[in-house]
Amino acid sequence: MNIRWIGITFIGICILGGLIAGLFSRSIEAALTPPLSIRTNQATSTSSAAPVGTTKPFMPSTPITNGVTILAQDTFQRANRVFWGTASDGRQWSGDANSIEVFSIAGGVGQVDHAQGAFNAILGPANTNVEVVFSGVVNQFAQGKVNIGAVLRWTDDNNWYKALIDGTKLQLFKRVNGKITLLGSVPFSAQAGMLYTLRFRAIGAALLAKAWQSNRPEPGSWTLTAMDGVLSTGSGGLRFLMQSGAVIKVTSFRETTVNGLI
Length: 262
Hints:
262 residues; alpha+beta; Jelly Rolls; 2 domains; 7-stranded antiparallel beta sheet; 2 helices
């Protein structure tokens, strides 16, 4: 009798267990299965990864150092080509540098040759209080008939300020509505075939310039200054006066904002 009741009780327990398992099987399965959203995100992350070599290169923002913004710069370290093309900062040279074939890149420098007359190379946005510093070499100054210089507040070929060296002088000029005016001049002896650096700054109505042999220390003070507020804004760049046989090579160019006179 006891054995019979034990058997009936065992069968009842089995039936009850089966019912419980059936009722909670979906909950148990759901608890042991990763959420669908997690699996979907993982699959999306894997499939959206770009193949190697197809991602767009990262372009840094305009660098700022000690409150000074670099507006334009070029190291000229690129393949030989006609015209100056795209500067090392990604900007396009304008003026004559990308339209007249006397401009070229040769051996890691910006070159101008087989030319006669005045030519402009402009780089960067228009601004007001800025300076240009560049280094270059001239194979012959031709008794002052060849010069190399920087321009500021350039808007077109008829409106600009220019600081230049011509072999015997460092000079400041302005051209307004096509009329050229000498603003200042000091003696500066420059030898053909020697690399020189020129720094030209415009802040408010003040124009300041200095030049030196590139392998020597920069002068501590400005060599030449003038006051002229006719042109208030414009781009920076370079301007050359060329004669037959002259070759000018520019090794570096940079234009920055300025915070003060010194």
